[in-house]
UniProtKB/TrEMBL annotation:
PANTHER family the UniProt entry points to: PROTEIN-S ISOPRENYLCYSTEINE O-METHYLTRANSFERASE, SLR1182 PROTEIN
Keywords, sorted A to Z: Membrane, Methyltransferase, Transferase, Transmembrane, Transmembrane helix
Source organism: Rodentibacter ratti
Protein name, entry field: Isoprenylcysteine carboxyl methyltransferase
InterPro entries: Phopholipid_MeTrfase
One Pfam entry name: PEMT
Length: 146
């Protein structure tokens, strides 16, 4: 089962490019500490999620859900159901802070909307079909993003 939607890292990159070329409307000062914090947090969340997938011996490919062998609910997955997407979102937040204008934040909104609509909703449908009540219980306890 493959999706036609671009892989999330590619989508993140393209949205970052669009954020860069947007006109700098509503300029503000750069918050270097916040930028650094977002980048470090993004790396931490990504590493923790990859580690959990590795430990569970299951696929990390969001384009090939049929390769999913286990439902991962431990570690960072007790806080968010989509830590890898959260790490990409944090990179875009850092990028918006670096660009220093309000219009750049439209990329954040676009990323969340596109991910919810075209990637996460399909994943949730598939996981619910594959893991049934186990996934529904997990979904009721842990939020989609944070």
């Amino acid at each position: 089962m493959r999706f036609l939607f671009p892989p999330p890292p590619i989508l993140c990159f393209f949205i970052g490019v669009v954020m860069y070329v947007l006109p700098p409307i509503g300029k503000y000062s750069k918050f270097f500490y916040a930028i650094g914090f977002c980048i470090l947090l993004s790396i931490l969340v990504a590493v923790m999620s990859l580690w959990q997938f590795y430990r569970a011996n299951t696929s990390i490919d969001p384009q090939r859900l049929d390769k999913t062998t286990r439902l991962v609910t431990s570690g960072i997955f007790q806080i968010t159901r989509n830590p890898m997407y959260l790490s990409l979102l944090l990179i875009l937040v850092a990028w918006a802070l670096w660009l220093g204008h309000l219009l750049a934040w439209s990329g954040i909104i676009a990323f969340v909307w596109l991910m919810n609509r075209f990637q996460i909703s399909r994943e949730e449908f598939y996981l619910e079909k594959k893991f049934g009540d186990e996934y529904r219980r997990y979904k009721s306890k842990v939020r989609r993003w944070i």
